[in-house]
Amino acid sequence: MTNEFLVVLPILVPLTAAVIAIALRRRHEVQAAWSFGSMLTSLVFAVLLLADVWGQGRPLVFQLGGWPAPFGISLVADVLSALMAVMCQLVLAGGFLYALGCRDQCAQYPMFYPLFLLLATGLTGAMLTGDLFNLFVFAELLVFAGAALTAMSDDRFGAEAAYKYFYISLVASIALLLACGSLYVSYGTLNMADLARRIAADPSPPLVLPAMAFLMVFFMVKGAVMPFHFWQPDFHTAAPTPVHAVLSSVVVKLGIYGFFRMTTLLFPGQAELIRPVLVVAGAVGVWFGGLGAVGTYDAKRMLAYSTLGQLGFILVAIGWGTPLALAAAIVYAFNHSLLKAAMLMLAGSVASRAPVKTAAFDVITGVGKKMPLAGVLFLLGGMGLAGIPPLNGFIGKLMLFQSGVESQAYLPLAVIGLAGIVTLVYVMRAFQRIWWVPMPAGAKTKPYGDRLIAPAILIALSLALGLWAEPLLRLAYDTVAWLSVPEQYVRVVLGG
Amino acid sequence: MIELFTALAISALFAIGVFQLLRRNLIRSAMGVAIVSNAINLFLLASGAYRGEVAAYANLAGQTARQPSDALPQALILTAIVIGMGAFAVVLALVYVLSLRYKTSDSDEVKGLRH
Asked: Of A286, A313, A289, A277, whose CA–CA distance to A400 is shortest?
């Protein structure tokens, strides 16, 4: 069974590459080529992993150090983990491509690419691990790399954004450690499969509910869900474009992944307690994010608020919890990752052409006149976010509304359905400000800006998945079929 | 008896830590992070402290009937201490940069991103 190594490779390749990239720091071109090459290699391994897991119809488990579960640390790739890993690596590779062609000073720093690779390691590891404490370690790696990348931003407020992000993430990590301790006292294990088995057998220990609450706090902070969102818009205004394109699209999906795991694997018996919270937080987030995006002064900040809204849709779907709703959440999450990363890159490239490097609307008014291709891409991406065909966003939203009708949740359906219109409002407003309104007299754009190849690839991918959605839909339905039988996951991880 | 003292110590550290963490002063809130992470370490230790009688590293196979203690919480704490130290260092570094840039230690004055 050499296939098992596929589970560890998407984590190991970026980690090793980061160490070697530090050694290459004196030669910038070599370092960039090496880092991008290893990022692509890692993406290939993640795709192979997904193909293997999906094709064989069973999760792959790698027991680190050869210790059998539940004594050692298990890395588990079921279809959900593998799909999330592919999604993350895809957007990370896109972010890398953008960083190669971007004119930010910070992308020239010797530590930029190693930190980016460490970010990839932490994110992929957090998606693939089968152990709660290991999740803490990978999440910390992710936060350290993300905060450092933000602090080195060209924007003079980078350090402030990094401080806010790091501080709130530390509090989230404290919550995760408290959950680990509570679960360890109650069940004597931190392996997720073993925990799932023991919680299902005996949900009575008094610390189970606090552990659930702490885990929810952790995933809500990671996912920037409504009451824990406050670090997110500030962060996106100041971080370097390649970094926040990745952080706003895939890093917040760690929270989404966590809610999937909580409701289907760890606490399926107590899911009735979690789901209403998710529906309410999601519905409030949809409106809060939408209205926040309409009222903001900066294109990047607008897209950050829009992330809050779009994540709200996904949370509502997880909260409904029917198979169709879960499949819709997976499709929606995949599609949002591609589109939001592309939109943020477009906003960043517009900002790079602006007279002063910022995405504030009063500076970038009319800048788009010089970059028609970016305008087309932005319009396509905006249509995808709002859920207009032919982009993939339409399919996710259609499935979501179908599942709402099916589970007869008409009130939340009406709430989020109306909010869908708000998406159109803010996207069109940004499009008008940047591409329709003439430039103020005397303002001059820079002749060169960031390259558009990375957002073009991501939008093209989303368009392809919209026109030919069959494979992704089948993948989502298969994932949900797997998620509905947590016993299989437990059996494969624990052996026997 | 020792259980009670451990519980009191954890709660006292938590109370002091959270109080400092919520202060406006940047340095005090950084101290709060360090104190809370120590409270967490003690909490993790308490989750396995009362099982077994012999140290986990002692190799006494067959020589004694006494049960070895649980090694896993200790491994968790070692990891958490290292990560906590790194996190504290990064927080201090960021506070240093902020204090240079904003000439203040009051977190309410650090508001360059708010309009």
From this structure: A313
Return the residue matching tokens 């290939």: A44
Q: Which residues of B touch A163 (CB under 8 A)?
A: 91, 94-95, 98, 110
Identity of the residue in A137, A156, A184 whose CB atom sits nearest the CB atom of B79: A137
Q: For Cα atoms A309, A310, A312, give the angle at the middle one, nearest 5 degrees.
A: 65
Distance from CA of A269 to the nearest CA of B (A): 25
The number of residues in chain A equals: 496
Domain boundaries, chain A: 2-494
What is residue B70's predicted lDDT score, i.e. its pLDDT?
A: 78
Q: On the CB side of A218, how many CA atoms lie within 13 Å of its CA?
A: 27
Q: Which of A473, A449, A469 is nearest to A461 (CA)?
A: A469
Averaged pLDDT, A295-308: 88
**For residue range B18-50, what is the model confidence (pLDDT) as tens digits?**
999 999 899 999 999 999 999 999 999 888 767
Mutate to test the interface with B, among A163, A187, A218, A298 (most CBs of B within 10 A): A163
Question: Would you call B57 helix, strand, or coil by DSSP?
Answer: coil
Of A166, A173, A297, the CB nearest to B90: A166
Look at residue A448 and tell me whether its pLDDT is greater than 80.
Answer: no
**A25 within 8 A of A31, measured Cβ to Cβ:** yes
Show residues of chain B in contact with A129, CB under 8 Å: none
Q: Does domain B2-109 have CATH number 3.40.50.720?
A: no
- State pLDDT tens for residues A71-129: 888 899 989 999 999 999 999 999 999 998 888 888 888 899 999 999 999 999 999 99
Q: Using CA atoms, how far apart are residues B87 and A424, in angstroms rounded to an integer?
A: 41
Domain boundaries, chain B: 2-109
A471-491 pLDDT, tens digit per residue, is 889 999 999 988 888 888 888
Length of chain B: 115
Percent composition of chain B: helix, strand, coil (DSSP 3-state, to 5): 65, 5, 30
For chain A, how are helix, strand and coil distributed in percent, rounded to 5? 80, 5, 20
Contact assessment for residue B31 and residue B37, using Cβ atoms and an 8 Å cutoff: no
